[in-house]
Design brief:
- The protein is built from 1 helix and 9 strands; from the N terminus they run αβββββββββ.
- The protein is mostly beta strands.
- A 5-stranded mixed sheet has the order 1-3-8-5-6, with no helix packed on it. It has a 4-stranded antiparallel sheet with strand order 2-9-4-7.
- Keywords: Signal.
């Protein structure tokens, strides 16, 4: 139990450091103001970190802290299965982005994002015309042996006309 609490505390600290670093660094994403970042940071051993519940729009920094990958967890609620992601790589080296449905282990995509580039994922254009599965997701930026720096924006909707 203490190992789990220590892991959750370290995870919360890493998320807070990532948020502050992203806030302090200038964004290279043009044409849209950076949305507010909502994070859960444990304040005691008894706190549990749950995925960010998504119903409309959100964003999160993707910055590695001492490693070469960055993770962000979120949940897609029932009736909101159409998903659009805009993934921005702010590093000078390419990164690999993956999206995994944690409840089933299904990998929805693995895409390479060029240095200082971006990629979009629109679920109904890329294999999920009926929408994504409800549940918990992990988006991951992997830099190989290089540090990761970026941000991603997401939006869910009940219909493809929501986009």
């Amino acid at each position: 139990m203490k190992k789990k609490s220590a892991f959750l505390a370290i995870l919360g600290l890493a998320m807070a450091i990532s948020a502050v670093t992203a806030w302090a660094s200038p964004s290279t994403f043009q044409g849209k103001e950076t949305p507010e970042i909502n994070m859960v940071v444990p304040s005691s051993e008894d706190d549990v970190i749950t995925p960010y519940v998504v119903d409309n729009e959100w964003s999160a920094p993707m910055i590695s802290s001492g490693g070469s990958s960055a993770n962000h967890y979120f949940a897609v609620n029932a009736g909101k299965g159409h998903l659009k992601l805009h993934m921005v790589n702010q590093a000078n080296t390419p990164v690999k982005a993956t999206l995994t449905h944690l409840d089933s282990g299904m990998v929805y995509f693995t895409k390479e994002i060029a240095a200082n580039g971006y990629k979009d994922f629109i679920s109904f254009d890329e294999g999920s015309p009926q929408g994504m599965r409800t549940g918990n997701y992990l988006i991951q930026y992997i830099g190989g042996s290089n540090p990761v720096k970026g941000i991603y924006y997401g939006k869910t909707g009940s219909s493809i006309t929501d986009f």
